[in-house]
Amino acid sequence: MIYAAFGMWLFFILVTATGLYRFWTKCFGGAAVDWVLLPGTLAGELAYNTGRLMTGRPAFAGIISPKDIREDPCRYAISGKNGFPIELFCTVLTMLACGAGLVVSVHYLGENVIPKVIYELGDLELTAVSKEIPHSWDGAWVLLVDQIKLLRRMCELWGTLDWGDWCVPGFLYFSAVFTLRFAPVRHDFRASIIVGFGIAIIFAAVGAVWTELWNIMNGNFWHVLTYVWGLMLFILAATLVIAGVTRLVKTLLRQGKPSPT
Length: 261
Known about the structure:
Blueprint: H1 2-28, H2 30-36, H3 38-54, H4 83-109, H5 114-118, H6 137-157, H7 167-180, H8 189-209, H9 212-256
């Protein structure tokens, strides 16, 4: 069922984006990462704090997180009466704001990038992420192999793009930052998971009444979802490779130094 598969991919995107953000903040500091992701930071944190103000709570912390993430109070759930429902409401507003930013980016800048992911990269047969949840062990392995193919497709994408067209790097940047900040990554992650599955359930309920939604999701919507997940997959792989090589070099340099006597 396409709506269940949508929920699965949305879950993967939320987990990957949040994991990448929190890993980067540990390596470079929260403030540096937030400045690099500034459009998504502004959209996400302003929407989150708007939700707090609408529910009678003061704006929480600051738009830019502190350099030391251990000093960021946003990691903890909103305390007090109705704290978690307020967290859910703020999370919905955050996803709406960053989702709107992603939609605008796709509409105005993405027409030269997304078709290349789906149609124009060599003899790879993968055209989109799976529209079904695997129901067997073999199906799970097929799904895993498809992710490797998608990662290869994203790696090959960079050489086919017209980097002289400012829309291309602009779209790649804005689509990345709005996806990475789609969930309120500085706040309680439990709310993001609940809201994510809630979105999938709402889509399924609307689709049961309005059958045209299936056609929309089965077309360009799924192509955008494929691009977004492929982009997160590429950024994750690049981050892990760079982190691994960096740690290896540091280890070798330490081993090459004479031990103090």
